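Components:
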Amino acid sequence: MTNPTPGASRREFLSTAASAPLVAGAAAGVLGGEARAQTTTGAAMAGGQVLVTLKVNGQTHRLSLDPRVTLVDALREHLGLTGTKVGCNHGQCGACTVHKDGVRVLSCLTLAVAAEGSEITTIEGLADGDELHPMQAAFVQHDAYQCGYCTPGQILSAVACVKEGHAGSDAEIREYMSGNLCRCGAYVNIVAAINDAKTKMGA
Amino acid sequence: MADTVQGRSGSERPAARDKEGIRGGAGVALIHDSATKHVTGEAVYTDDIREPARLVEVHIALAERARARVVKLDLEPVRRAKGVVAVVAAGDVPGINDISPTGTGDDPVFAAGEVVYHGQPLFAVAAGTVHEARRAARLAVVGYEDLAPTLSIEAALESQSFVWPEGRMQRGDLEAARGRATGRISGAMTIGGQDHFYLEGQVAMAVPGEDGDMLVHSSTQHPSEVQHMVGKVLGLPDHAVTIEVRRMGGAFGGKETQANLFACVAALVANATGRPAKVRADRDDDMVMTGKRHDFLARYDVAYRDDGRIEAVEMELAARAGCSADLSGAIIDRALFHADNAYFYPAVKLTAHACRTNTVSNTAFRGFGGPQGMVAGERVIEEVAFATGLDPLEVRKRNLYGEAPRDLTPYHMEVTDNVAPELVAQLERDGRYWERRDEIRAFNARHPYFRRGLALTPVKFGISFTLTAYNQAGALLHVYKDGSVMLNHGGTEMGQGLYVKVAQVVADELQVDVGRVRITATTTAKVPNTSATAASSGSDLNGMAAQAAARTIKERLIRFAAESHQAEPNEVEWLPGRVRVKGDEIGFNELVSQAYTARVQLSATGFYKTPDIHWDRATGRGRPFYYFCYGAALAEVTVDTLTGEYRVDRADILHDVGRSLNPAIDRGQIEGGFVQGMGWLTTEELWWDDQGRLKTHAPSTYKIPAASDRPRVLEIAFFENENREPTVHRSKAVGEPPLMLGIAVLHALSDAVASVADHRVCPRLDPPATPERVLMAIERLRETK
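Structure:
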């Protein structure tokens, strides 16, 4: 059995591997591979920590976490996946949207332990290698952002919106994207991008 | 992937401005420089920067009284709490406990002795995690001795409590003008404030260095000021402090002075602990402790003639400055500068007060007081329209600035670049104002409870910092031996596309592909003494400075090419990616390589200061603005008169950006500005209780526009114009002016409301026109029938 590092975090990883690329597989507090992942999952640790196995963007990570840690904090602070943003931290702005088993969820309102056993997709995992997801490409082509802070959440929400079948018309897109705030007000272009991408997504 | 925005690759600029030879020159609808990083999550914001080892996280503890003496502050239990590394309060500031941007000494980092607003920082706790810090902060024992707070503008006016001397502008003979008038109306309105709600909250990370140096990564629009403030609180000279910012996740004025606090607290903790320190405000705390757009009370008195022409306007504007001066002096001035909007007042007297209240100190927000002044000016127009029975558009058109003598502003500046009459006429025609007016009246006559409304309002907005000294900028440009170019300037990127625009200017000047120009993070170590990226000035100032730097290097290269070919400089042709001299063509890389070998300096600074501007506050006279931006919006709404709920059906916008540096970016600014202005005037309501507590401190209670709120149809067109002044490529600023296009929505709502009393009574619909307020206005008007 492996001995997880309690409290492993983004910064400790970064202090020892500051030049490593910020990708999931190499990220903080990740112990062992998929093969060993299940053995201690869910076990309570000393100091109130629990072992949590998270599958993010196709990679399995074992983390030792306080059970109250939210998914967004697990992603950002423990896995170094900073593409997911914190806007309001209580489920009102949509900036932290990720996919859990293909369904859009607010990662600030989801406990990391509740994501165990699910496939999590973040903005870092949406592209196929260097090939942008059609939604990402459409956002670029339509200038569907300004400051970019809400963009990862917008894109993940948009992909789900199309897959849910809620992108039938402009009005429907606007309604089903209304949980993702954009303070820069790039809504016109966001709707245009979703309309463009939905055909390329085969919806 | 295409590097231009779809459908925007050239149709919006004259063909003559195409740069066939290079990619991404001035005028091209290039994608944002961070576009791909934005969509992949790779764009690094301050909170995403890799954290150094031993970093501590900081929580700022806030006062829980609007006004009180702090008689006890026992922080020992906090210090003893789990995970706590340090606690800092007013007594722990080694330098000066003040971060007031204008040197008024009324903005302590931490309250010392007296608390002046609910939510004022009291102390900061540093711990291993922010959660530990937050929990520990609760253990503090704070004793207050309550004092009577001033919580409203009216109360501050009553007690003559101000943070700044009043502003005043006067021109013409009011009494004589009133004598010429046939009617006179006076009234008052309140204008709500606005929270910035930048999606990226306030954040700073300080990293201590050797010799007491401090590096702060700060999400700020004003790195030079943060540098100075950090130096001031630490007791260090500016040269010991470096501030860096690559990008912000939105700012809108909310990070012009408000970032100072977070950077200073991070630096204080880093200084006290010797460890890197990060402050990232929780959203609720952020909204409670940072300043917002000023809410205003406006009193007006207008004298007019039956034909709708205004003869005299007297206006008194009172702003809620909050507990300190911050930038309120300049903000009330800008409210006065725009109380005329695009209209000529033959005789005018304007006064503005910055009221001291025990609420958070209000600050810059896109438009900087201008929008509030303009909203008051548009109310005056509306009053005249209802009093004369004329269509509001007719009244607007009759009062627009025109030929001399109808070209003089209340601050005695001549409006020489006025395009408002043509622009309004074009939108009136293209937007089919009168046909739609008739159609809407017919609809309203037959529908039992829906009422539609239509309004066309213009915008004229002055460009320049009214503090003349701020109208300067610097840039630094290196050309490396391999021909690659590094660009740095004092402007900051908050999503407005400044970096890409300035890079386009440099690419254009050097005639190289924009991809060759590396845009680098704004840092006080590269370009010193910069102004805030504010007042819409970013590309005007920094574009010119960067162009000057590029020109210096280009001239050196031309001189070198001439000398090496025994030619005169004027025989050197500067072509895309190459030069031609005496029949010989040399590629840019080769030329640079040769120039390096011949010991030609390939690094340059550039500097720009806006010419011809001056302003004397004491006399209320001057030419504070280099030029004006113009625009107009035509908005159409439908109101449910049973509930007050409404939707914006359509908006048509015509806006003057001069010769656009980047049509895609400018279009985004127009759309976004309009939506933000609309939000301010409709759904965004700030609400304090009678204890001075802000109760709308999260998106759950404070409603900014969502995708579903934007107009069903939104048509945007550029008004064909070029800047009369020699700005960078004859472009115009675009950051703030479009916000005020949102005023059309307020007036369209007013128009719909007015229909319930057959357009005989001015609805006096005060913003924010929330559904509740719309319903109350409807009820009020119904009673007049």
